[in-house]
Amino acid sequence: MLSKEKDSKSKNDEEVFDEIKGLDPSFFELNRTNYINNLKMRFPRLNANSVVVLQGGRLAPKYDADTNYYYFDQESNFYYLTGVREPNMYFVLDIQSGESSLFYEKEPEDSKVWMNVPTTEEIEKKYGIKTYLKEELDRFLQRRNMEVIYILDGLNENSGSPVFSAELNFVGDYAYLNKRINHDKYIYMVLCDTRRVKNEREKKLLKYIAKISNEAHMALMKYMEPYLNERDTENFFLQYLRDKYYTRFMAYGCICASGANAATLHYILNNRDMEPGDIYLTDMGIRFCGYCSDISATFPVNGKFTEKQKKIYNIVLDSNRGVINNMKPGITTYAECDTLSKKIILKGLQDIGIIKSGFSVDEMFNAGLARTFMPHSVGHLVGLDVHDTGLKSITYKSNVILESGNFITVEPGIYFIDFLMDEAEQSPVLSQYINKEELEKYRGFGGVRIEDDVMIEDDWVESYQAELPRTVEEIEAYMKKN
């Protein structure tokens, strides 16, 4: 089911987005509506006479300096429900009425000399949310007289860090409100679950982000030649998107790995001069209007694969395509995707002689041999964060089923990492499967990763990288032509 489109879909359905203007307030109004509906459906303990209070990110100088060295990037949960790009705000979502309210910290008058200071009216107009000064929050909640004030509490499933939570401490006449604060972790879990299922507006945005990211990757393939520094390719990718689409943020640190560097999964030094005959692994994505892309491509620096590179590349491509073609919405689990990707890789390595014949793929997989060559899972959710939330801290050992609206990467890889090769060769269990003489030929090879961003629909799946040259023949022809 690779990249299947509905017959009724036309190019005219494509929506164009603008990083400078940002997203329409209705985009986030839909997110809020979905969140409230999910709370009412999935949270049996929910007190309807309640509000949820979120705190936005704070603009802080670097270390002990007085200067900000970066462009402010909003906390993801706050952005998801508000669309607000400015720092130092609070947000109140009324569960009963659905009404939204923003509260901002007023800057001192002389701040206007140094920075843009928006007014209450300007914030309200920009985001379509009734806006007040921060000092009015206590009185606002007192007048609302809700029974419960929910705040986000829990751990991010990817980092294990506490979720950014509103700091509330009512004093004086408002001190009684402290007893109404509720830390039920389900408030955060339902928000993560809501973010996991992308709505139609989010799907259009994510497809657009993938489109411009694909465009930059293809331009990079045209630009590529021997003796460039890895940093040249990083700069080219960044500048291409900045020039054409006014982007400022990457989704994560750029991975531009050539030769043996491609065996380091999150290699970001990007400082080696590339040689003819090197394999080049790029893993770069953009953050655009708050949402991310995450794409990996592997191709030869001089435009022509060696026989060894071709063999490894084709195994990884088989794994990538095999997983995508076997994704069945409402049926396939994340665990099954991961298992299939690694079994295809083990079979491919067996076919080219790195792994000995005579052993079943199931036996080798159960023994843990796949980790030697692919020490990561086949994918993760993508959205506001490149490793998006929504699996509630559960891993590929779980039986979470793919459902419509999930946006997930499919990124199998094969890497020749010295210490993992040594570990396998010295293991009494794993060494029996390894053809050591053949494996040794691949020391210093690097690695291959092919990563698609895949949207799960009701009855089909769509890779947003379908336009990229992916087969050996397509890549060589494209690089030769350009």
How are the SSEs placed, and which strands pair?
Blueprint: H1 25-42, E1 50-55, H2 76-82, E2 89-94, E3 100-104, H3 120-127, E4 130-133, H4 137-144, E5 148-151, E6 181-182, H5 186-196, H6 200-223, H7 230-245, E7 249-250, E8 255-258, E9 279-284, E10 286-288, E11 291-292, E12 295-300, H8 307-325, H9 334-351, H10 361-366, H11 370-373, E13 407-410, E14 413-415, H12 418-426, H13 436-440, E15 447-449, E16 452-456, E17 461-463, H14 472-481
Parallel strand pairs: 1-5, 3-4, 5-6
Antiparallel strand pairs: 1-2, 2-3, 7-10, 8-9, 9-12, 10-11, 13-16, 14-15, 16-17
Helix pairs in contact: 1-2, 1-5, 6-7, 8-9
Distance from N terminus to C terminus (CA atoms, Å) equals 30 Å
Q: Low-confidence spans: pLDDT under 50, at least 5 residues?
A: 1-12, 393-397
Question: How do the strands of the widest beta sheet line up side by side?
Answer: 4-3-2-1-5-6
User: Which class of secondary structure composition applies to the elements?
Assistant: alpha+beta
Number of helices: 14
CATH class of the largest domain: Alpha Beta
- The CATH fourth-level homologous superfamily of the largest domain: Creatinase/methionine aminopeptidase superfamily
| Count of strand segments | 17
The total number of structural domains is 2
Helical fraction equals: 25-40%
Beta-strand residue percentage: 5-15%
Q: Give me the CATH architecture of the largest domain, please.
A: Alpha-Beta Complex
Mean pLDDT: 93
Overall geometry: globular
Largest sheet: 6 strands, mixed
Radius of gyration from CA coordinates: 25 Å
Here the CATH topology of the largest domain equals Creatine Amidinohydrolase
